[in-house]
Amino acid sequence: MRRALPGMGQRGYGRVINIASVHGLVASVNKAPHVSAKFGLIGLSRVAALEYAAAGSRDSGGITVNCICPGWTETALVEPQILARAADFGGDRDAAIASLLAEKQPSRRTSQPKEIGALSLWLAHPMAHNITGAAIPIDGGWTAQ
């Protein structure tokens, strides 16, 4: 961001889309380093959004800085947690996922990385010129509780 934003400012157009986490919006026990980092990323993004909000125009697309905050997403990072929980359910992966998500994510459905990608593409469109400083959850209702 430090190196990219000045050039975006000169052009009057640019997009920064940071991937934070639902843990940038709510805390969980035993996750202090992760939660601290994600809260910090959202704060940093909001500062940059304010600093560049007036750059550009609707016609040029302006500069926006936003965060996407996924909840449970099927990635290699969460797979060990799923497998560990599956052991409690006789190896049933679907039961393990349902059990994990029941604790926090009301939809009880994981997201796919391509869903986060689709939101990123939309945020990158010039039409999204007035969405800046946002932390957008894709969390199946986790943060709505």
Offer a quick outline of the entry.
With 145 residues, the protein is of the alpha/beta class. It is built from 5 helices and 3 strands, in the order αβαβαααβ. It folds into 2 domains: 1-71 and 115-139, Rossmann fold (3-Layer(aba) Sandwich), CATH 3.40.50.720; 73-110, no CATH class.
Task: Give an overview in words.
- It contains five helices and three strands; from the N terminus they run αβαβαααβ.
- The protein is an alpha/beta fold and 145 residues long.
- It folds into two domains: 1-71 and 115-139, Rossmann fold; 73-110, no CATH class.
- It has a three-stranded parallel sheet, with helices on both faces.
- Helix 2 (32-52) links the parallel strand 1 and strand 2 (62-70).
- Helix 3 (79-87) packs across helix 4 (93-102).
- The protein starts with a helix and ends in a 7-residue tail after the last strand.
- The model has no long low-confidence stretch (mean pLDDT 96).
